[in-house]
């Protein structure tokens, strides 16, 4: 395991494209320096996205995608059960907390955790508690729109992605390999 000093907290938020991309870029850099990385992806379900190829590139990265979590915008309205989703997220966050507290990983990415908190499916206080109690050397990244203010105040880095122009504004659909 490479030594990188005291771990810091990063927040990538905002309405623009690039939050997950930035987190995966940091993961790639960390892997290149011999750091051990784990990425937890909330609300992505079983969907296939290009970034998961990273797990095949290095033995120093693990990607955990919670298959029972699907963002409501990807479900027909009648299939969405908010209580069930919230309960699943709570269960999954327990696994996340356990893993972080073991201190086996140098860099931990919680992809889409900001959306989970903002939607009320996970209590912000639980995430704040994890930030405070994590092993000192663990670097922690939280991505997703609408990062809670109190999380941003705790962070060492806060980056807001702002969309100036995007093809979706013209009705262009998301493209495999570019948007996902």
């Amino acid at each position: 395991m490479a030594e990188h000093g005291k771990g810091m907290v990063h927040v990538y938020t905002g309405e623009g494209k690039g939050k997950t991309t930035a987190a995966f870029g940091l993961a790639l850099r960390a892997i290149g320096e011999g750091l051990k990385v784990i990425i937890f992806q909330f609300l992505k379900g079983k969907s296939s996205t290009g970034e998961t190829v990273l797990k095949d590139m290095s033995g120093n990265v693990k990607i955990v995608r919670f298959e029972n979590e699907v963002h409501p915008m990807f479900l027909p309205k009648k299939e969405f059960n908010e209580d069930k989703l919230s309960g699943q997220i709570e269960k999954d966050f327990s696994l996340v907390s356990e893993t972080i507290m073991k201190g086996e990983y140098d860099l931990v990415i919680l992809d889409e955790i900001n959306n989970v908190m903002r939607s009320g499916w996970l209590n912000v206080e639980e995430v704040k508690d994890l930030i405070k109690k994590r092993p000192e050397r663990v670097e922690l990244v939280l991505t997703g729109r609408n990062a809670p203010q109190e999380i941003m105040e705790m962070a060492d880095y806060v980056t807001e992605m702002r969309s100036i122009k995007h093809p979706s504004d013209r009705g262009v659909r998301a493209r495999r390999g570019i948007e996902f």
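The beta strands are 9-13, 37-41, 61-65, 107-111, 139-143, 157-160. The chain has six helices and six strands.
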